[in-house]
From TrEMBL:
Pfam families listed in its UniProt record: GGDEF
CDD domains for the chain: GGDEF
Keyword terms: Membrane, Transmembrane, Transmembrane helix
Listed EC numbers: 2.7.7.65
PROSITE patterns linked to this entry: GGDEF
InterPro entries, per database record: Diguanylate_Cyclase, GGDEF_dom, Nucleotide_cyclase, Rev_trsase/Diguanyl_cyclase
PANTHER family referenced in this protein's UniProt entry, alphabetically: DIGUANYLATE CYCLASE DGCM-RELATED, REGULATORY COMPONENTS OF SENSORY TRANSDUCTION SYSTEM
Source taxon at top rank: Bacteria
The organism's taxonomic lineage, starting at the top: Bacteria, Pseudomonadati, Pseudomonadota, Gammaproteobacteria, Chromatiales
Segments passing through the bilayer: 6-25, 34-54, 60-87, 94-115, 121-141, 153-179, 191-212
Catalytic class of the enzyme: transferase
Protein name: diguanylate cyclase
Organism encoding this protein: Rheinheimera muenzenbergensis
Amino acid sequence: MDVMTLSYVNLLIGLAGVILLSLIYKNAQSERHLLFWLSASFALCVTSICGVVIRSGVEAPYWLVPAGANLATISFSAFILSAIYVVTKRRVKYHWLFGVLALAYALNHTDFAQVSTVNRILVNFPLIIVLNLLAIKQLLAQTKSELSGVYRALIFAFVVNIIQLGTRFTLLILLQFDLVSPSQTTLIHSLGYYGLTTYAFLTLGSCLCLVYKKSSIEMRDNMERDPLTGVFNRHNLPLKLQNELQRASRSKQHVSIVMIDIDHFKKVNDSLGHVAGDLALCHVAEVVQKQLRTYDAMFRYGGEEFLICLPDTPLSSALNIANRIRKHIEQSELSALPELKLTISVGVATSSTDVSDWQLLVQHADQALYQAKRQGRNQVLHYDGAAIISL
């Protein structure tokens, strides 16, 4: 495959990226990283068109070809790095982004760069390698992400690109010292077009995989989580509790269940409206989650009821957590409704050797909660055997 054909292939990859990502972004405008992938695809199109212009023998001003073409090539990597920053929840510093691109364009207008193609390569390659290394560094920090498979594919793309750039850079340095034959120049340029094709295919292909994977994760989360409060809904509650009980039985540990009910919640809806009720639910969910450990799970159990699963937690620890939550709710304030004072009633139950059924454990916690409400609310009670006992 000759260089002109590779230029057309790169152009097709870029156009495909522009069209597909434009359609995806049209239906997912909150996914800001798509704009950077789209910009990278557009930059690839510009680079490829400039390559066709060069190979066609058409005369063009230096600011466009090769300076503009080199800027587009560097922009491709810069926009991909920016997309990775957005996906991995890191803020893009636009003054750095456009500063790097301005520097690259200025370097291509220096006397050194204007002397020869070799000099321009020596100027531009280090910038691209640095951008790729920064992307790899950011991706390596995401080892626990559910997108780690896609991230590994991107890392592979960057490594391949760095290897081909490093190889060409080394050959060009050797060429300057007459350590390789001048006939190798054509090979070096051909390797560059092959490298760009591989790099573009791998990165933009990984981008599409990333979009698909992210949408799959979001759909799953939407099924598993309550849309109002963001905590888990009851869909996976049976499986979660049964798994935890089985694991606790094997490891001789305890699982505790905490049932929470917002006191006088109906009065909140009746006096302040359902919007206020929704705010109250979200507030309670937020306050509770701040008091939990990373491996605890919170579920919206009913209208104003929440259930918390506390793995590896004996009764004494569960009671401490429950009472800490109760106090934080009582002392906290809704910024949108400072006049609204919320309290909660709490029931706690802990697994024992004769309790291996999650439904029975939930029933015990619910009984303790019911008793806490009957005894005046805003308190924590726990189920101990056949008795309901206050803290």
